[in-house]
Amino acid sequence: MPTAARSLDTHRSPAQNVLWVAEAALGRLRKTAPSGGLVDDGDGFVFLIDDPDELQRAVSELTAGAAFGVAQVHGTTGYNLMQAVAHARREGRQKLRGGPDRTPRMAAIATPAVFVPAYISGEDARRLFLDDETLTTLVYADDRHRPLAALGRERLFRMFSGQYGHAVFANRPVLETADPNPRLIDSDATIVEAAVTVANRDSESLFDDVLVVDAAGRVVGIVRVRDLLRALTSLGLDRIQALNPLTGMPGTTRTEQALSEIIDTGETLVVSRVDVVDFKAFNERAGFSVGDRTIQILGHAVAGVGRGRGARFVGHIGGDDFIVAWNDEDEALVGAIEIAAELSAGMAPLGPLPEGVMSPELAVSTLTAEPGQIRDVATLANRLAALKDEVRRHGGAVHAMARLETLETPAWRPLDAAYVAVAGRVASLLGR
Q: CB of 151 within 8 A of CB of 174?
């Protein structure tokens, strides 16, 4: 990939195009180096491309949410060029702003997956790896690109290096030796959320590639752990420190900033405080490691449901306490049920809890305030705390929905396991 910038005063074709690519997404271009010069832009790079076919080849590697923008240069002056660069940069940066605290999503750093048929032999798979030293994983998928298994470079080469390895595996399909349960991460998960997930893998698979999938479960690319770490490093220490270390979600400071920004819009506020019913007792009886995993599972549920419903903000203010700023009350009502269902589903892989310990359930406090009723974050926090006190007095897995004038008499909605098991299936169809 070129590293020297082409001068902006170079004579240009009227059909020249600008391609802006976020630094986090550059890994996708490892097989296509645009001919235009590369201009460092701080958090991205600008390619000047004359050939429309070359532009199309580059863009085809940047699909599925990668942060890039394209603009055509209209005219031959430096000003015309700068306008096109600004337009492409705006388009690309919009995609970087989708995650909490403006952190890039996994789709932005994923590289194209290499799919192979179920019948591929060990020797053919080995040849693919030898022909492309950047290739680290082969993906088996169905006809809709939903993953079936993944075969890593190191796993295959270990098989061949063993005694009689070549004789055994060279001419037979190697699907049976692939990992049938590769790590999957949502394409719209942020790189920080993904890093937390990867860090909690068992040591044997810690450095395996992860498959990035869209909402329909289709593979849109892969991410190598080293690329994930490189993208994290580019965020900067100050931004990493602003995130909760257990979940990778925006912490207290960023949450307060975001809520202040929402208040300043002068629009209706619908904010939920989400936590686990009597988490302290659950944490002590289930064990602190299970408690930490429960908080991570809940954080994943809150972030996933929030993204899916287009929530205005999600944050983790500490312990088992999470904040969600919704767009309206209906979204808050259905979202709370979905979060409860996701928490229940996420706990299943942890296995049975100690005898006598019940699976965690949610308590949600949702406050709605009309424009102008709340003027600062301190007041909002105070009213949410008062509503949470009502939830504690009520007890159990419930969702309290109130306005400022009904803080002491909120509308109660159940969130117990039996209710969520039924309502969760209905909630997933509502508000989409």
A: yes
In whole angstroms, how far apart are CA 83 and each of 10, 73, 80, 181, 308? 16, 8, 5, 47, 34
Largest CA distance in the chain: 77
CA 132 – CA 257 distance, rounded (Å): 46
Dist CA 45 CA 63 (whole Å): 17
- Tens digit of pLDDT for each residue in 1-38? 333 333 344 444 557 888 888 766 766 676 565 666 66
Structure letter (DSSP) for residue 102? G
Structure tokens at 30: 């490892």
Q: What residue ranges do the domains of the chain occupy?
A: 17-97, 108-232, 245-427
Q: Hey, what amino acid is at 82?
A: M
**Domain 108-232 in CATH: superfamily?**
CBS-domain (3.10.580.10)
Spatial distance between the Cα atoms of 430 and 432, rounded to a whole number of angstroms: 6
Closest to 339 in 3D by CA, of 431, 428, 422, 262: 428
Cα–Cα separations (whole angstroms), residue 50 to 4, 79, 89, 233, 400: 17, 18, 18, 33, 59
Q: Which residue type, as a one-letter code, is found at position 206?
A: L
Q: Specify the residue for token string 């949610």.
A: 362
Question: Which residues on neighbouring strands pair with residue 313, listed in sequence order?
Answer: 325
pLDDT tens digit sequence for 102-131: 566 787 778 888 999 999 998 999 899 988
Nearest to 63 by CA among 216, 298, 220: 220
> Does the pLDDT of residue 57 top 50, yes or no?
yes
Alpha helix stretches (DSSP H) within 219-347: 225-235, 237-241, 252-264, 279-286, 288-308, 329-347
Q: Which of 277, 396, 291, 415 is nearest to 350 (CA)?
A: 291
Q: Long-range CB contacts (< 8 A, 24+ apart) of 135-138? A: 136/209, 136/222, 136/224, 137/113, 137/208, 137/209, 137/211, 137/222, 138/114, 138/178
Give me the CATH topology for the region 245-427: Alpha-Beta Plaits (3.30.70)
pLDDT of residue 36: 61
Instruction: Say whether 65 sits in a helix, a strand or coil.
Output: coil
pTM of structure? 0.59
Phi, psi of 21 (to 5 degrees): -125, 130
For 367, the token pair is: 């406050």
Q: How many CA atoms lie within 13 A of 135 on its CB side?
A: 20
